[in-house]
Amino acid sequence: MAIYSRKEKERVTAITTSTSSQTVSGKMGMACANPSCFFCIMKEPESSVRRVGIKNCFREIPLTDDQEHVLVLSGLFNIAMTQPDDPEFPSLGIFPCMASLINRAITDKDWLLKHQNVYIPYYAAHVIGSYTMNKVEFAEKAVESGVIPPLMELLRGKLTWVEQRVAIRALGHLASYERTFEAVADYEQELVELAMKLASTCLDMVFVEFVGVNDEKARLKYHGDLLTRGIGGMEMENRKAEEWASQLQCWCLHILNCFAYKDRAINLICRQEFLKDLCQMWGGLVNHSSPAGVGLIRILCYHKPGRKRIAESKEVVESLCNLSRSSDDWQYMGIDCLLLLLRDQDTRYKVMETAILFLVDLVELRSLGGRSYVGEAITRTLLLDYNQTMSKLMNNKFAQRSLEETWVLKLEKKRRERMMSTEKVEEKKVLVSLIKQQGNQRCWLGEVEDAIFKYSEALDLCPSMLRKERIVLYSNRAQCHLLLGHPDSAIRDTTRALSLSTPPNSHRKSLWRRSQAYDMKGLAKESLMDCIMFINGCINSETNKRIKVPYFAARMISKQMEATWLFSAARSKISSTQHKKGQGSDDEDEGGNEEQDEMIRTMMENKIFKSGLSTIIEEPLIGKGGE
Length: 627
What we know:
By secondary structure, the protein is an all-alpha fold.
């Protein structure tokens, strides 16, 4: 990709910000002799004169070579971030200016390595993305100005992952609008394939090129400056790089969403290898506002070819099942996907044996993700064509028993309870309490299996309307399963308790017990989510100002955050590769990125790169009416 020698890259990483703060302070403290100075023009009180001056600046900047251009771009970056809906700059030619600057950075390596110009393509692409974020009319101007070809060049990897991130962001905004989608779709196959590849590999790339580089001097300095403004050291840079890597991945998924939503490129996106990667993309805790992989999977499930390919992937179906029984914010999306697969007769029996074992625990959910009667929707879907489904499950007695249990709980038992008098309900409530106490006593004595029997007896007897009593019985029985080392049974019972709780997933003991059970199964993300919810419950329940987080929960959080770190898979791959190289088993050079690697080396060798750039504040990655 990029085309620079090692020594040229050294120049780039060195020259940039050393003069930045000096130039700014000089401009603030003395009169400017440059009649075309952008900052002086911006101070012009006469609107018509200022507009003419700005228009001329935008026309001249790509044609001239001035070390102060990076200051202008930095200023435009901040204005675009804080005033993305202001029509002044888009009407005066900012889009052709930004497109020309990106083109120049890609084609003129000497110019890129001069002054502080290495920052310019990042700023230019970011400005395009900011101004096209909310206004379709701005997006149309951007397309007419020819911004898509240079953005595609950045996305192809002509520079680095930092520029790829802002390029895919800008393209994602353009693809979000009906009126500009087709212009982006002219690159449909290449763009979709690039987005898929980048989504699958960007975490490895960021780790290899930045986060995994432990020598601060060996890192690209301008990356660190853009990430943190040069303040905070390597720890701060790593945290920000994790956030940016997650955003890069989620923006790739966003643009794939734009195509999948319009029933475009479905077969391309539904490659089995990519689907396997997709179910592992969750955004991490640093990007909790994006549904990441499951958001795209749900859109694919709305299309018949997408459902067919997803139903054929055991990994994706199991991932959706685990999500459906978690306290993740996107739990409802996992449930939606499974219901869409089960309602399609062509995929129903491909996923039924797996899905029923998970969804049966959720039939008593009342509301979730802003939806009401979630449990009723699950029940109707599971019991659809009941007799035919039972015959199809003949070889899976456990799934058959689970479906039969749903029929009894949701239909037969409720029908009987409608005829039950208030006095009879109270009588059963007292009896259930007595049996529960017997179960507690057995548990305290270490007679765990007998305790399970007592809790099960109480659950069979307990009317379904006594939700609080049933929560405790399920949760206590789950604790017994944990003591016996049966995590699957513990997850089933705690999930049923959490489905009965109001709001859902709020019963603290069940959250902690399910977190432990998921930990026993090695499902770190699900364990982490439950543990976070448990700690939140502890904090919210504290009436005094001194909040105490249980030590055992803090230890679990620490363990699972390490396991679910966004770069944990990349770190493992690198360790494995280094081990193989040490054994002499990796004799061939994979190649393919020689030019980009060469450019990065060149940038790294300039030793006098200083900071002095404006603070970068990113808007959150959110959906929009057109975004």
